Amino acid sequence: MTLTVSELTIHHGAICAINNVSFTVPKGQLTAVIGANGAGKTTLLRTLSGLNKPTHGHATWNDHNLLHSKPETIVRHGVSHVSEGKAVIPELSVHENLELGAIWRKNKKEAAESKDRITSIFPRLGERLNQRADTLSGGERQMLAIGRALMSKPQLLLLDEPSLGLAPLVIEQIFQTIRDLTTSMGLTVVLVEQNAMGALKIADNGIVLNLGKVAVAGTAQSLMADPQVRAAYLGY
Amino acid sequence: MFQFINTILIGITAGAIYSLMAISIVLVWRSTRVINFAQAGMALLSTYIGYEAMVHFNSFWIALPVAMIGGAAVSAFIELVFMRLLVKRSSTGPIAAVAPIIATLGLLGLIKGVISTVWGGADVRLVGPVTNVGYSIGDKTLAFSPLKLLTLVTVVVLMLLLTVLFQRSSIGLSLRASAYSPEIARLSGVKVDFIRTLGWSLAGTSGAVAGMFQTINGNGAFSPESIEFSLLLITGFIAAVIGGLESLVGAVVGGLVLGLVISFVLMYVSGSLFFIAPFVILLIVLIIKPQGIVGTKVARRA
């Protein structure tokens, strides 16, 4: 089962943010979507999770049409989206933020097991369950945002710039965690990043978006070796 | 000393009713970011529904829940049929912030019109289940009656139920998450549209109780033009703002503070300040602590 996007076009008012884009993301792999500011990365992700509406095109996950469903329906089909900028609710406790991710799940015992698993992956969250989310550090908040998404029992995880505004050492940690999660939980991950180098290092595949179009796509290895990609996005 | 205690008792009972009204304003604000000027009209309509039940069943204990259910239904209907469409149609441009608020003013007029058409403009009467004659201590009469006690108990029970609902249930978590961040709530699987309607119907319920008790704590007579209901809107709104507009606890604190201050001003300064005192308090709080007395420093994005 794969994420298949074909001939997708998305407009922001009069501006064409994504222009006739097609790609597939293989199951169990980590695909990095890189590109400059305004390349359409965030728009693409928001459309896949139902927050934005496309102009035309197709996108399916497990034979489920992603483009004409609401976000609250899409999450029930195994697609979790961690939106840009440490997507936690600051007024709620760490515990409540995690609970929120599992709020639609009928089986509360399974949800409790998910929580145990997530707090063992992120022990820092486990120690701070009763603190408000706005007392956490930036890195911890990003972990909580990912933890909340994992509480929805996703098969496909959409991550929007998890490195944004974090210290270099923390970024390294977050990237490593994302890589480990992909492998250990058998997740399919789409990672949108401006930090092209960091993202490609942990990714299996990469897609370079430029002005709403796919400029290059291939394995992460091949992108890192591509002279044009190196010059434009990796800076060496 | 005796007068002092009476002043406190009057203030607390009045404040409890203001708190309920403030809660309904806060609930609507939190669910849909709308300041609902029709809230008192909805409370009035709910009270008429309660009055109708009273006429048929001759029992306040049937009339109260009927008014609450009526209030919830009216409120949910308005949100579903009217506000949702309106917010969708005016979602961009400068009109987006203003249109829903202006619309609630129109709604207030509309509701009053409907009430006048159905029930006429003349006073109708609603009588409480227990007497409003104060308890006496020796030869003195306290400004606290079985009816006032019932009012306080009802308000406290309702607030406890709401607190448990908000803090301890997954519906409550959905309500809070949708208020703070609709987008994250949606991405987590919360059906935010449904939760908004639910927020409105809880507000309608709370407003219905406020309307019923405001009426029976007065002389029991009310009409579409009742001053009690205009007062209820003003005090409820001011209490909500004093309390920071975001929190239920704030609404309760705001209501009690307002009730007590008005009571003391009337007793110790001048009875003619009734319509001035609430506004003076509002302005003082807004100038000294614009985020409300229990509001946090950090303003939240809407």
Protein architecture, described:
The complex is a heterodimer of chains A (236) and B (302). Chain A has 10 helices and 10 strands. By secondary structure, chain A is an alpha/beta fold. In chain A, the strands form 2 sheets. Chain A has a 6-stranded mixed beta sheet with strand order 6-7-8-3-9-10, sandwiched between helices. The longest helix of chain A is centred in the last third of the chain and has 18 residues, at 168-185. The termini of chain A are far apart. The relative contact order of chain A is 0.18. The mean pLDDT of chain A is 93. Chain B is globular, with a radius of gyration of 19 Å. The longest helix of chain B is centred in the N-terminal third of the chain and has 31 residues, at 2-32. Chain B is mostly helical. At the A-B interface, helix 3 of A face helix 6 and helix 7 of B.
Q: State Rg of chain B.
A: 19 Å
* Average predicted local confidence, pLDDT of chain B: 90
Q: Can you summarize the main beta sheet of chain B? A: 2 strands, antiparallel
Give the number of domains of chain B. Answer: 1
What is the number of helical segments of chain A per DSSP (H or I, 4+ residues)?
10
Strand order of the largest sheet of chain A: 6-7-8-3-9-10
Q: What is the CATH level 1 assignment of chain B?
A: Mainly Alpha
Report the uncertain regions of chain B.
297-302
The portion of residues forming beta strands of chain B comes to under 5%
Mean pLDDT of chain A: 93
SS content category of chain B:
mainly alpha
Low-pLDDT segments of chain A:
none
Major sheet summary line of chain A = 6 strands, mixed
Query: Mind telling me the C-alpha Rg of chain A?
Result: 17 Å
Output the number of helix runs of chain B: 11
Work out the oligomeric state of the chains in this entry. heterodimer
